[in-house]
Amino acid sequence: MLRVNTPAPSFPPPSLIVSMRVVSRLIVCLIALLIIAPVHSEPSHQAAAQDAAQNAAQDPPYEDSQKDVQSETQDTSLDRSTEPDWGIAPIIVPFYSPETGFGGAISGIVYWNARRSAARPDQASLTAVYTEKEQFFAGINSDKYVWGDRFLAELNIGFSDWKETFFGIGGEPPPGYADDYEEEYSSSGFRIGAGWAVKMAEGLYLGIEWNHDDVDPEQYESGAWLETSGLTGCDGGAVSGPGLSLTWDTRDEAFYPTRGFLVETVYHWFDAKMGSDFDYDAFKTDLRIYHSFRPRHIVAANIEFETTDGDVPFYQLPSLSTRSSMRGIEEGTYIDANRWAVQAEYRFPVFRRFGGVVFAACGNVAPHVADLADDAHFAGGAGIRYTVEKNKNINIRLDIGFDEDGETSVYFTLREAF
């Protein structure tokens, strides 16, 4: 992959990296066979019904956020049949972020089979977005559990026509450019992702997936650096290939957790043999922890790590700041082959449907994993919440974030950051 600055000698040596990549890809293929195999021996309807009944009995019931946390924890014998089994939260809402400016979104979240498990209902969301920068996005996401919650089928489809900002690699401008260098470009494309996971234990799922992204960067600034840089990905192309996922979810709620944790680990393998124009591997792990120490007072923490290896297009490099992490730093300001980020948030009630949060985060990106500890960037801020769907505590959020230089970023959107 072409870089702005000449990287230091790599370690491990290239021969070892190639061997590791071959071994990891073989492991993906073997585990995929193990996951697919159970599909050919479908469980009987009676067995599926028994599994669903056991899962419903084992999962903690959905509790109203107004109840005392201690009594919630002790009383798991409540009848979930009194809860709504489905719900819908249609939203037409203006929003704002540093990357988009002002915009409008039409979004709807539908969930069903909530009585089976408050933490793992079936759900689907449809979203359409348009911004003052003439950015457009439309997408649908769906999670559907099969045979009780023995299997999980996932699907996401999206199309975007978006304006992006390029700040350089690793927070460094291209040679000969000032530190405040930034360059806008446009890109359009579509994304299709599908996954199938099998339940290994309560809340633990092992899955295979396939992702295909086809992105076409266009309309570079005339005479600017990107247009003639030859940076990997400047001519666009498809990123396509299989992946392996491991998810462990003990949260009491999917939309607004108050206790438990979620671990999501994903390995992707993109290769020309799989229809990809770029050959690289990507690994990401995401840990989220939730704890209630008083009614409606929640402390949440999030740890993320990403690493890539190979011919990564510049627009697929991990970004230090994302839509859910490092609020206060504009997305894309720091991108590189490796990334870590840690954030914590305190959520508390204010008045009726209104709530508040305070948050802080730190992280870094680097060309090599060993360089990640060399520096860190910091961000933090506060926000307010308004509950638009009370059964599942689905909120509209307004956050104001600050970076380490005191620059302010505003975020106004639907659902929690994490």
Task: Describe this structure as you would to a colleague.
- By secondary structure, this protein is mainly beta.
- It has one domain: membrane protein fhac: a member of the omp85/tpsb transporter family (Porin, Beta Barrel), CATH 2.40.160.
- It is about 10% helix and about 50% strand.
- The chain contains four helices and 16 strands.
- Strands 1-2-3-4-5-6-7-8-9-10-11-12-13-14-15-16 form a 16-stranded antiparallel sheet, with helices on one face.
- The N terminus is likely disordered.
Secondary structure tally, helices: 4
Number of β-strand runs: 16
* Rg from alpha-carbon coordinates: 22 Å
Task: Determine the fraction of residues in helical runs and give it as a percent range.
Answer: 10-25%
Strand order of the largest sheet: 1-2-3-4-5-6-7-8-9-10-11-12-13-14-15-16
Count of folded domains: 1
The third-level CATH topology is Porin
Instruction: Report the biggest beta sheet as strand number plus sense, adding barrel if it closes.
Output: 16 strands, antiparallel
* CATH superfamily annotation: membrane protein fhac: a member of the omp85/tpsb transporter family
What's the level 1 CATH class?
A: Mainly Beta
Strand percentage, roughly? over 45%
Distance between the termini: 32 Å
So what's the overall shape? globular
What would CATH call the architecture? Answer: Beta Barrel
Decide which structural class fits the backbone.
mainly beta
Keywords:
single chain, 418 residues, mainly beta, 11% helix, 49% strand, globular, disordered N terminus
List the helices and strands and how they pair.
Elements: H1 14-36, H2 45-58, H3 69-74, E1 86-97, E2 101-112, E3 122-131, E4 136-146, E5 151-166, E6 183-201, E7 204-218, H4 225-229, E8 237-249, E9 260-270, E10 280-294, E11 297-310, E12 338-351, E13 354-366, E14 377-389, E15 394-403, E16 408-414
Antiparallel strand pairs: 1-2, 2-3, 3-4, 4-5, 5-6, 6-7, 7-8, 8-9, 9-10, 10-11, 11-12, 12-13, 13-14, 14-15, 15-16
